[in-house]
Amino acid sequence: MTSARSSLPSRDIAAPAMALYEQVKAFITRKIQDGSWPAGHRLPSEHELVAQFGVSRMTANRALRELVEQGRIVRVAGVGSFVAEDKPQSTLLQIANIASEIRQRGHDYGCEMLVVERVAAAPEIAAWLDLRAGESVFHSLCLHLEDGLPVQLEDRYVNPRVVPHFLEQDFRQFSPSEYLVRHVPFDEIEHVVDAVLPTAQQAERLAMSVGDPCLLLTRRTWTRGTPVTLVRCLHPASRYRLGSRFRADGNPSFG
């Protein structure tokens, strides 16, 4: 049987030395990623990690604590540490179609259109879309569901100068995001992710507690230098993950 130590990178390799806690994290992460330790698998205890790796209790604790913060494991007081259930992940390097992502996982997708309207742009929205305060903008609000469970609240503003027929669409057939990606060319995207707490109304719509954290993805797109849309996508952090994979040359790797 291969020991924990033999699974670690050799110290003879000409590479930057890993801190001891990072070595423990790397070992556990590999076991999770290669499927050796599936969701729900019980991890070695701190005492067992100390014995396996010859590290201090504090070092083992830091490795486990950071894995919890990254969402890879969960710790149950008095019971132990376990591999966390995998969360759906959405890429940050492209405009993802959440409906396709959910269906590709073999789950049922649903969308509830809550608002589709024309409004006067508040100063903040006008600034984001390079419009005058009070100028007309299109606004939509929809809730995306996976197997009946809310996973994203999408709050969108659209520039009427670029997308004049937005309000005429039948969003029972396709979501606002699908329509924009199909019919409005864009050549620049900005993504910003924040950790936030939901308002009472947002928490109710997402079927979550007000005190539970959310991931807020704010996206803007442009076509030839003109803003097309501003959208804020709110995800319950316990149900969703945002991330990317890319090659060393900086180009995104999709699929």
CATH level-4 homologous superfamily of the largest domain: Chorismate lyase-like
The CATH topology label of the largest domain is Chorismate lyase
Mean pLDDT: 82
Distance from first to last alpha carbon: 35 Å
> What is the strand content?
25-35%
CATH architecture of the largest domain: 3-Layer(aba) Sandwich
- Tally the helices: what do you get? 7
Order the strands across the largest sheet as they lie in space.
4-5-6-9-8-7
- The 3D shape can be described as elongated
Poorly predicted runs are 1-16, 89-93, 249-255
How many domains? The number is 2
Structure notes:
- With 255 residues, the chain is an alpha+beta fold.
- The protein contains seven helices and ten strands.
- Strand 5 and strand 6 form a beta hairpin.
- Helix 1 packs across helix 3 and helix 2 crosses helix 3.
- The chain starts with 19 loop residues before the first helix and ends in a 12-residue tail after the last strand.
- The N terminus and C terminus are likely disordered.
Task: Please summarize what this structure is.
The chain has helices at 20-33, 46-53, 57-69, 98-104, 123-128, 176-183, 200-205, and strands at residues 73-76, 80-83, 89-91, 109-120, 136-146, 149-158, 188-196, 214-223, 226-236, 241-243. By secondary structure, it is of the alpha+beta class. The strands form three sheets. It has a six-stranded antiparallel beta sheet.
